[in-house]
Amino acid sequence: MSHSVKPQNSTRKLIRTTEELIAAGLAPASQQEALAEVAQHYATAIPPAFLDLIDQPTDPIGLQVIPSPDELQVTAAERSDPIGDNALSPVPGIVHRYADRALLKPLLVCPLYCRFCFRREHVGPDGGVLDDAALENALNWLRTHPQIQEVILTGGDPLMLSPRRLGHIMTALSAMPHVTTIRLHTRVPVAAPERVTEALMDALESDKSVWMAVHINHVREMSPAAQACLKRLVRRGIPLLGQSVLLRGVNDTEEALEALFRSMIAVRMRPYYLHQLDPAPGTARFHVPVVEGQRLLAGLRGRVTGLAWPTYVLDIPGGYGKVPLGPGYVEGPTTVRDPEGTPHVLDRL
């Protein structure tokens, strides 16, 4: 599909339905039936901030958010819960995979729905928010597990909560003596920066160490509004981490990754993780083999500052945790390769 959609973007309307996709020029009418079937399984939301960034439906922004009939094709490697959250959830809203930290998922709503999301069968506008009783049950679980030092707010997207509810959660976590660190995983600063109001930032205030990991996959997501939003968060004293997913057609070149990571550093965001794609259903079109990902990261070594070089990680399917994928530079007991690939034999390693 090669037609431009820019003239349609002035309406700045949140797009959710197949009919709206076609009317905006994001999908051809010939795909209406197939996309309606996709919609029965997976939610769609393209907020105005992202709509304005789409030049073509198959560009690096459009690919991330526009549904495709290819999502109906599920391979043998794909699974509905690829990282094993369900088996590691002692109570609704909590995932406990690592000894000293836990996820708190207060909602399953996002500002947009990525077509490669590993929770794509669970998130959506009808995913809702933990009700008061369920939220209190989840908080009580955290209160009664003193080994938990870090709580990671995720979902869904925690910045989709109202300032009042987010503030309630932050206050409750801040009152737990054993919790030293609160981390929020979000797409809102780039997908819906207008939501990051003074009231929302006030709700993030805590005596604990508060960090924010922002999911960004392409440099074009760093719009002027997104950059301004991120800089406001930095001025509030919140350290920013960048998380990206390696995606075919989006950021699978050295040039795309370099531009992305440099844009993060420019707003005082530390590139943290480059994720290998999780095998969620219908996501094969985005898959980049690990050996190719290692080659891409190796190509950036020495080319960008170490501040702009994230850890390339795989979340082992089945809930076994994240592991770094390299690339590696040690070969044998005393040989190491430099960033150019030249081997050097050392007296010892």
Automatic annotation (TrEMBL):
<dbReference type="InterPro" id="IPR013785">
    <property type="entry name" value="Aldolase_TIM"/>
</dbReference>
<dbReference type="InterPro" id="IPR003739">
    <property type="entry name" value="Lys_aminomutase/Glu_NH3_mut"/>
</dbReference>
<keyword id="KW-0408">Iron</keyword>
<keyword id="KW-0949">S-adenosyl-L-methionine</keyword>
<dbReference type="Pfam" id="PF12544">
    <property type="entry name" value="LAM_C"/>
</dbReference>
<comment type="similarity">
    <text>Belongs to the radical SAM superfamily. KamA family.</text>
</comment>
<keyword id="KW-0663">Pyridoxal phosphate</keyword>
<dbReference type="InterPro" id="IPR022447">
    <property type="entry name" value="Lys_aminomutase-rel"/>
</dbReference>
<feature type="binding site">
    <location>
        <position position="117"/>
    </location>
    <ligand>
        <name>[4Fe-4S] cluster</name>
    </ligand>
</feature>
<dbReference type="GO" id="GO:0046872">
    <property type="term" value="F:metal ion binding"/>
</dbReference>
<dbReference type="InterPro" id="IPR025895">
    <property type="entry name" value="LAM_C_dom"/>
</dbReference>
<dbReference type="GO" id="GO:0016853">
    <property type="term" value="F:isomerase activity"/>
</dbReference>
<dbReference type="GO" id="GO:0051539">
    <property type="term" value="F:4 iron, 4 sulfur cluster binding"/>
</dbReference>
<protein>
    <submittedName>
        <fullName>Lysine 2,3-aminomutase</fullName>
    </submittedName>
</protein>
<feature type="domain" description="Radical SAM core">
    <location>
        <begin position="96"/>
        <end position="312"/>
    </location>
</feature>
<feature type="modified residue" description="N6-(pyridoxal phosphate)lysine">
    <location>
        <position position="322"/>
    </location>
</feature>
<feature type="binding site">
    <location>
        <position position="114"/>
    </location>
    <ligand>
        <name>[4Fe-4S] cluster</name>
    </ligand>
</feature>
<dbReference type="Pfam" id="PF04055">
    <property type="entry name" value="Radical_SAM"/>
</dbReference>
<feature type="binding site">
    <location>
        <position position="110"/>
    </location>
    <ligand>
        <name>[4Fe-4S] cluster</name>
    </ligand>
</feature>
<keyword id="KW-0479">Metal-binding</keyword>
<keyword id="KW-0411">Iron-sulfur</keyword>
<keyword id="KW-0413">Isomerase</keyword>
<keyword id="KW-0004">4Fe-4S</keyword>
<dbReference type="InterPro" id="IPR007197">
    <property type="entry name" value="rSAM"/>
</dbReference>
<dbReference type="InterPro" id="IPR058240">
    <property type="entry name" value="rSAM_sf"/>
</dbReference>
